[in-house]
Write a structure and sequence with these properties.
By secondary structure, the protein is mainly α. The chain has a single domain, classed as Hypothetical protein af1432. About 65% of the residues lie in helices and about 0% in strands. The protein is built from 11 helices and no strands. Helix 3 packs across helix 8. About 30% of the residues are buried. The mean pLDDT is about 90.
Length: about 200
């Protein structure tokens, strides 16, 4: 996309795109239906994936952080059009994700950058792509740990299987920490001396 002032049609295309991505906040992540507890929109998932991807990129120290963040931001963009189809859905419904990505990319003046970013992500060859896929899985692992900590025993088995999908050393390190740390710990540190003095009488 050329820098500078865009024409009115290009602005209209961008606005339509911005309305479209709003659908991610209205699209539920379908895995929770089978888990039995919890809920999350695709937009909520993408938001935390971006933070995880940033953390993984910093832990690695050699990757292109901007590329990682763009991959995180775009990795589920097709779900504005095809929704979140879990593995059961995909047994019976054709998931034309590539077509959705191509159509979305063709609709905006910066679509080539978006398409190329997603094409690299899907190939899983670059360090950035591998980190982002781990970020995607780690977000699910974090969500499952939150459900484990509220008593869903099924989530524990699911979490173990998700950990097995991780590829990078950084991702595996974070997964070990996730499984060891209570999801309340960041705000409710039960072993803290300050907490004990303040709340335990």
């Amino acid at each position: 996309m050329k820098k500078g002032k865009l024409d009115r049609n290009a602005n209209r295309d961008i606005v339509n795109f911005l309305f479209e991505v709003g659908m991610l906040a209205k699209t539920p992540r379908s895995g929770f239906h089978f888990l039995g507890t919890g809920k999350q929109s695709v937009a909520e998932h993408v938001n935390r994936v971006a933070f995880i991807g940033y953390a993984l990129a910093q832990m690695d120290g050699t990757v292109d952080v901007l590329k990682v963040l763009k991959m995180c931001l775009f990795h589920d963009i097709s779900e504005t059009r095809i929704s979140d189809l879990n593995h059961i859905h995909q047994k019976y419904v054709e998931r034309r994700e590539h077509s959705a990505v191509k159509d979305i990319s063709d609709s905006v003046p910066f679509g080539k950058d978006m398409f190329n970013t997603l094409e690299e992500y899907e190939k899983r060859e670059s360090k950035e792509a591998l980190l982002v896929k781990d970020a995607d899985n780690l977000e699910w692992i974090l969500s499952l740990k939150e459900e484990v900590d509220t008593g869903n025993t099924r989530a524990f088995e699911w979490m173990q299987r998700a950990v097995e999908r991780l590829k990078t050393p950084q991702g595996k390190d974070l997964a070990r920490a996730i499984t060891d740390i209570d999801s309340n710990n960041w705000w409710f540190p039960k072993n803290s001396v300050v907490w004990k003095k303040k709340y335990i009488k």
